[in-house]
Each structure stands twice: as C-alpha cells, then as structure tokens.
Amino acid sequence: MLKAVILIGGHNKGTRFRPLSFEVPKPLFPVAGVPMMQHHIEACVKVPNMKEILLIGFYQPNEELTKFLSNAQQEFKIPIRYLQEYAALGTGGGIYHFRDQIVSGSPKAFFVMNADVCSEFPLTEMISFQKERAQPNSFVILGTTANRTQSLKYGCIVENEETNEVLHYVEKPSTFVSDIINCGIYLFNSDIFQHIGAVFQKNQQDMMMCPFDGEEPSNGWQRAEAIRLEKDIFTAVAGQGKLYVYKTSSFWSQIKSAGSAIYASRLYLNQYHNSHPERLATNKEGGPRIIGNVYIHPTASIDPTASLGPNVSVSMGVTIGAGVRVRESIILHGATLQDRSCVLNSVVGWDSTIGKWARVEGTPSDPNPNDPYSKIDSESLFRDGKLTPSITILGCNVTIPPEVIILNSIVLPYKDLNCSFKNQIIL
Questions:
Q1: Three-state SS sequence of the chain
Q2: Rounded to an integer, what distance in angstroms lies between the CA atom of residue 90 and that of residue 105?
C-alpha cells in the first residue's frame, strides 16, 4: 500500500507569484488548463496500490480549495485530504507534524512532492529503482541535470555513479558542486521520521539553551518543528547508505514566479500528446486557426478568424474576437480579447479586457526555445541587477484600452490603464 503527500505551502510575504496569487492559492492556479496540483494527483492515481493522497500546507481552507478537493475525489475515486499546519513548518516539519496520518494503515512507502514543480512525475520508475538499485528501507530523490549556472539555484547532489547513492548534498551552493539537482519529489518510508525526529529533539534542546526574548517571530523558523528536508535531513543522511538519486531524462521545471507558469504550461501541453490528447485543440472547419499545442476550455467563445498557438491555454468563459493573435500565453477565466488585439508571452488575468488593436507582450528569457526539455525554472524579473519583467502579467479585472502597447510589465488587479507602458510594475 502506498500514499502520496503534496506539500502546497501557504501565503508568504513577498511571494514571487503575485499578482496571480491574490485571486487563487498558487497550487490551484491553472497550468495547461487544469489546477497546478491536479497534474500531481493525476500522476499519483496511475501508481498501483495508491490508497490516499494528503495535501499539507498552511492555507486557510476556503471555498475554492474545498471545491477542488471534492471534485478531485469524485473524478479520481481516491481519498484526498487537506491537513492544515498551524504555521509554516517547512518541507520536513509538515510531514513530521502529521506523521500519524501518513503512517496510518502502514503504507510500505509514500511519495512527498512539492506542489510548485512541473514534471512527468516518473513515480512508478522511482519505485522500481528503489527495489532494484537502492538498499532496503532507503530513500529516493528524483534528480535531473542542469548546467553549472542553473545548478546553483537548487539542491545539488554528488552521487556514486555505480550505485547512485547520494554521497554529498548541498542546498543552493555558492560555488559549483554538481550538475545533478534535486527535483523536489521523494520516495520515503516510515524510517524518515526517525531522522526528522532527531533534528526536532536537537532543535528543542537548542531552544531551551537559547530562549527567545519577547514574542516568537511569525515566520515559524524558530519553532523546533520547523524542519527542512533539504538542509536539515538530506545533508546529514547523505553518505550513510540511506539516500539514493533516481535521475530522470524527461522534462522538469519549477513554478516559482508568475511568468514561469507559461513555461510550465508549454511543457505540460507538449506532454498532452501522450497523456491527454483530448485536451489539445485541433483545426476544425468554422473554428479558429490552431498552431501547435493549444488548450481551449469548452465554454470559451473564439472567433474563427483568430489564431492561437503555439503553447496557449484558454480558460473558462474567455471571449476572443476577430483577428486576435495569441502565442505562448495563458488567458484566464472570463477575460476578453477584443478584435485585432495581440497577446504574446503573457498571462491575462481573470475578467480582464484587452481593447481593439492593443498589444500585450513579454520577452521570454528562455535561451533555447527549441528545446522543450530545457531546465529553465522561471522567467526572471531581474536582469543585470535591475528590475525588468520579461513576461507581461495582468492581474484580475485589468482594462487595457484600444491601440496601446503593454510590454514586459506587471499590472496589479483592478487597473484601468490609459496609455502604453514598457518595463513597468504598475501599482
């Protein structure tokens, strides 16, 4: 019997996913037409003997999250529960806090996945690898390769090339350590809680020796139970014959910033050819022109003279007028793109309106757009030390007037613009 845990996090100050996270919790943001963490759930239900999926985070349960869980349980016919942390406890502290719920029923093993990763999720392959290559009761990290510069942004793994044992682990090193990076997807068994418990006990002792003055900081990292798998567990366990890396050659990316959702959408749309061909739009008589991989919700109204693609996702209730051109973009629920407007490399927020002949455009920073498996994690907001949005993001209920150009800008919700903007964050 197997279980899966999806770590969905919660609201934090200065989140890089704003302004899109103002409207929905980040794990529910639609990527390639479905909520971000639905891709995780769809991968989990394909694993034989998967009995339960647990979501762990510190979001307040709201109507959207409750509705998603209810619909997902009905669709996938598997128990899916949300366990709310009392504070941000980290990737290790969260599963330790709810360890009784995870080990209930005595699962042989369980997956732990970060909700902000985009992947093909080779879960069955990780199980086979653990049985065939790793030691009994060992843990498996999903890894992939990155170039020297990219690797500095992630946890880096030094492996024994013959056995795939993790010999050394460093989280976001300051200098190059390895081109094998941590993908944020793990296969554990109940032994992991012994290692987390040891860190918890040490944290308690340290807190007793160095008590805090005044109130405890609100970020939770001074709590004994605030434990990070990457820094607190993997670093210590590496080299002890308990930790192994399974390297995937398939696609993987992180969804950290709002712009990185466009890149993740591209990867999932490309995967749909094998996993969900029914989600891809096709050219039909009397329909819009479809170029490459495009998702269109059945409720969207699109003029037959419009051109969409490649790599476009159109959500529920969207209206797209005559002659509109959309490429490499996500158009969210209820948005309206009026006649002859153009949207390139952008996210158009819920119920936003783009006027006739207007142009909303971003400049992608992907150095290799022809490689669908390139490990680029996000469209950076910073270039040469300066704040320069490279993907245009419109929050909800933004109105762009006719014949204006919005280039490489972020527009916060409920803005009614009256002129063109370039390289701006419009508050």
A1: CEEEEEEEECCCCCCCCCCHHHCCCHHHCEECCEECCHHHHHHHHCCCCEEEEEEEECCCCCHHHHHHHHHHHHHHCCCEEEEECCCCCHHHHHHHHCHHHHHCCCCCEEEEEECCEEECCCHHHHHHHHHHCCCCCCEEEEEEECCHHHHCCCEEEEECCCCCEEEEEEECCCCCCCCEEEEEEEEECCCHHHHHHHHHHHHHHHHHHCCCCCCCCCCCCCCCCCCCHHHHHHHHHCCCCCEEEEECCCCEEECCCCCHHHHHHHHHHHHHHHHCHHHCCCCCCCCCEECCCEEECCCCEECCCCEECCCEEECCCCEECCCCEEECEEECCCCEECCCCEEECEEECCCCEECCCCEEECCCCCCCCCCCCCCCCCCCCEECCEECCCCEEECCCCEECCCCEEECCEECCCCECCCCEECCEEC
A2: 25
What does pLDDT average to over the chain? Answer: 88
* Distance (Å, whole) CA 158 – CA 26: 32
Q: How far apart are CA 88 and CA 65, in angstroms?
A: 18
Count CA within 13 A, CB hemisphere, residue 341: 29
pLDDT of residue 381: 38
Q: How many CA atoms does the CB half-sphere of 312 hold within 13 Å?
A: 27
What pLDDT sits at residue 367? 46
Regions in the chain scoring below 70 on pLDDT: 12-15, 210-222, 365-389
